[in-house]
Each structure stands twice: as structure tokens, then as C-alpha cells.
């Protein structure tokens, strides 16, 4: 798998049984965002059958570990994804621990409104320093 370009990683999760394949993914990709499928090197992409759960957990963790800059995630407008989802168990914790990730931005799949759901502490401290530093 190729690593996502800086600020271009796109993860997604929804309520059980919901998929954001289709118009919302197309809209996100129009911004140049990259999903796991986009980063896959070989044409033999394994698909999303439930029997591939272990594959998705491993591959999604690797993608999260290789993400840098701003990470994007398509999540439902209200509520949170299933507690057993790959996003909740694997991807989000890996992104929050990844020192190369500056923020995680939640995209509403209906209108693509953006909301920062995680900000790396180093980036926030540096931002505050820049705001408070005023040379005389």
C-alpha cells in the first residue's frame, strides 16, 4: 500500500449497515482525498466482505500509521459510529497517537461541513505561540 499524500487521507465509518460509497465519497475525492482503495498497489483489491475483517483492521491501521498532516473522516451528521467499527477500534486511536497527524477533521457526508475532532497538542501549542508572540 502506498502512503496517503500529506493532508489527503480519507477514512469513513457510519452507523451499522451504512456505507458512504457513492455521492459523498465522490464529493470527498473531488477534493483530492484518498481512501484505502486508492492507495492499494495491486489490482487484486480484496473488497469489503465480512470475512475480510482482519484484513481491514490491519490495512486501515497501516494507513493511519502512514497518514500525515490533516486526516479526514466521513462520519454521520449525528451520533457516533458503532463502537466495534474499524474507525473506533483501530483508525482513530492510531491517528491520535501518530505524531505526523496534525488534526482529524470530521466531514458530514450530507453537506461536507468540517469539524475538527482532534488537534495534535504540538500543533496547537505552536499556533498559540505564534498568536501570542509579538516582536517589538
User: What is the 3D form?
Assistant: globular
Q: Structural class, from secondary structure content?
A: alpha/beta
Strand content: 15-25%
Number of helices: 5
The radius of gyration computed from the alpha-carbon positions, rounded to a whole number of angstroms, is: 16 Å
Characterise this structure.
It is built from five helices and four strands, in the order βαααβαββα. The chain has one domain (10-132). It starts with 9 loop residues before the first strand and ends with a helix. Helices cover 35% and strands 16% of the residues. Strands 1-2-3-4 form a four-stranded mixed β-sheet, with helices on both faces. Mean pLDDT is 79; it is low at 123-136. α4 (86-97) links the parallel β2 (69-74) and β3 (101-107). The chain is an alpha/beta fold. The longest helix has 13 residues, at 53-65. It is globular, with a radius of gyration of 16 Å. α3 packs parallel to α4 (86-97).
Amino acid at each position: 500500500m502506498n502512503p496517503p499524500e500529506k493532508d489527503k487521507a480519507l477514512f469513513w465509518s457510519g452507523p451499522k449497515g451504512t456505507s458512504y460509497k457513492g455521492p459523498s465519497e465522490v464529493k470527498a475525492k473531488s477534493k483530492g482525498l484518498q481512501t484505502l482503495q486508492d492507495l492499494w498497489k495491486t489490482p487484486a483489491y480484496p473488497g469489503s466482505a465480512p470475512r475480510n475483517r482482519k484484513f481491514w483492521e490491519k490495512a486501515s491501521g497501516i494507513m493511519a500509521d502512514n497518514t500525515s498532516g490533516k486526516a479526514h473522516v466521513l462520519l454521520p451528521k449525528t451520533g457516533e459510529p458503532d463502537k466495534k467499527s474499524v474507525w473506533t477500534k483501530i483508525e482513530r486511536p492510531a491517528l491520535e497517537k501518530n505524531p505526523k497527524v496534525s488534526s482529524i477533521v470530521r466531514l458530514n457526508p450530507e453537506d461536507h461541513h468540517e469539524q475538527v475532532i482532534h488537534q495534535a497538542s504540538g500543533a496547537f501549542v505552536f499556533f498559540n505561540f505564534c498568536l501570542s508572540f509579538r516582536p517589538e
